[in-house]
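Input (structure):
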């Protein structure tokens, strides 16, 4: 700025005074009423009661991106497991875990299995990806491999066929609901 411009500026600013700031007052936080505290306590207890998700992300045995996932409980017939492995059952529900965090995947998988059981779904597909080229390769795949056997309702699972995602997806076979078992028993007992 030139001397002339600075002189003009100072002339214009000559009658300007700083704004006086009042002293600051410290406000006390309003204490919540006992009714509000009771509601908060009830909500916190309710949330704890609702979170019955037993899956844990504490210790996950790692699997490799191209590993084939396979699991079969005792009592599952060989032919049933073979049909699952070959992708011969119709897929009635799908869950895609791509782009989820481990915690999001944990919650989603838990809810998915519960929903499948509530809707009498026997065969489902979980897409978890292979996790190739990642800092933690096959992280979600490893989680799925560790979590699925923890469900009593999961009878078997196996990596999918190529057209369903190959080793980046897994077929799961779920128990029949009591209602479906009864229907099946009635259907086959009438034949005799």
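Output (sequence):
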């Amino acid at each position: 700025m030139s001397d002339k411009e600075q002189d003009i500026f100072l002339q214009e600013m000559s009658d300007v005074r700083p704004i006086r700031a009042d002293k600051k007052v410290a406000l006390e936080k309003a204490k919540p009423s006992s009714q509000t505290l009771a509601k908060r306590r009830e909500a916190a207890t309710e949330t704890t009661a609702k979170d019955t998700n037993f899956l844990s992300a504490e210790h996950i045995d790692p699997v490799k991106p191209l590993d084939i996932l396979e699991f079969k409980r005792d009592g599952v017939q060989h032919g049933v497991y073979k049909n699952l492995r070959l992708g011969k059952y119709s897929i009635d529900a799908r869950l895609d875990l791509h782009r989820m965090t481990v915690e999001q995947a944990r919650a989603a998988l838990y809810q998915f299995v519960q929903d499948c059981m509530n809707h009498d779904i026997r065969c489902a597909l979980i897409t978890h990806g292979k996790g190739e080229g990642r800092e933690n390769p096959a992280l979600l795949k490893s989680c799925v491999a560790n979590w699925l056997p923890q469900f009593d309702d999961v009878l078997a699972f196996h990596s999918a066929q190529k057209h369903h995602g190959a080793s980046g997806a897994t077929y799961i076979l779920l128990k029949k609901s009591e209602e479906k078992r009864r229907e099946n028993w009635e259907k086959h007992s009438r034949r005799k």
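Notes: The two ends are 106 Å apart (CA to CA). The chain has a mean pLDDT of 87.
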